[in-house]
Structure formats: structure tokens, C-alpha cells
Putative phage associated protein (Bergeriella denitrificans), 157 residues
Amino acid sequence: MQITEHFSLAELTRSDTAKRRGLNNTPNANELANIKKTAAELEKIRAYVEAPIVVSSCFRSAAVNRAVGGSSTSAHRYGSAADIDAVGYTSPELARKILEMRDKGLIKFDQLILEFPERGAGAWVHIGFRWNSGMRNQVLTAKTVKGRTVYVAGLQS
Ligand SMILES: [Zn+2]
């Protein structure tokens, strides 16, 4: 099932963990509505950077979220976040492009997180939305310090 021109439901609900453990990752109607809104934002990013967007994780059911150790309040849980990269861009470059979009009034987000830029090609960009309660416009970088994940303000790479 195609959600938007370039994003399918399969891509936005795919989970290696779900597959490996036989967990259900099917969204309910509300979650599906959120996934559609998220996909529409990803289309905007795709158009802006003029490159395909690769989604490593979007929706996570309660079971999948538990299995990956995600926060119970994670926007992924509701289908309102995506972990992405863009073909031909590093993660820091993609994050900067999204900030450029924000500054031009082309996108609003709740959280933009540059995830583990020290991992190079293993980094990614998390973008999360809050459709009903106002977007916080938070920009963070996640990094590993002494084996723990810490979040620092702004984009740092
Ligand atoms: Zn994420």
C-alpha cells in the first residue's frame, strides 16, 4: 500500500526486530493517520534535497517499541517520527538542510535529532512531530559519552 508518492506502508512499518521476533507492527487507524502525516513531511524533505529518503524506522507498535528499548512516549510509538537519511548526503548535511527548510518556513518539527554523528555512515537523523499539541522545535545531537547516550543542544558533528 502506497501512502504517498514515494513512501509505502511497508517501508514505514518495517522493523528488523519485529521480523526477527515475530512481533506485530500493524498500526491502528489513528496511528495510520499519523504515519500519513509523517510521510507527507518526508515528501517535503525529499523534494527539498532532491534525493531519495531512506527510512530506517518510522512506526513502532507497543511490542516493537518495548523490544527495541524505546521510550514509551517516543513519537515513533505513534507513527509521528522517522529515522532517515538522504541518498548522497551525510546525516549532518541532511540535518542542516532540514534546519534550512525550517528557517524558510517550509517545515515544522517537534524534534530534530542528529543521532550519533561520530559513527559516520552509521549516523542518522530523527525527525519527530506533534500534530495536536504544538511543535517544540527542539534541535539536539545524540552522542555516546562513556557508554551512555547524551543529548546536547543544537547540531554538533
Ligand atoms: Zn528516531
Notes: The chain is about 30% helix and 20% strand.
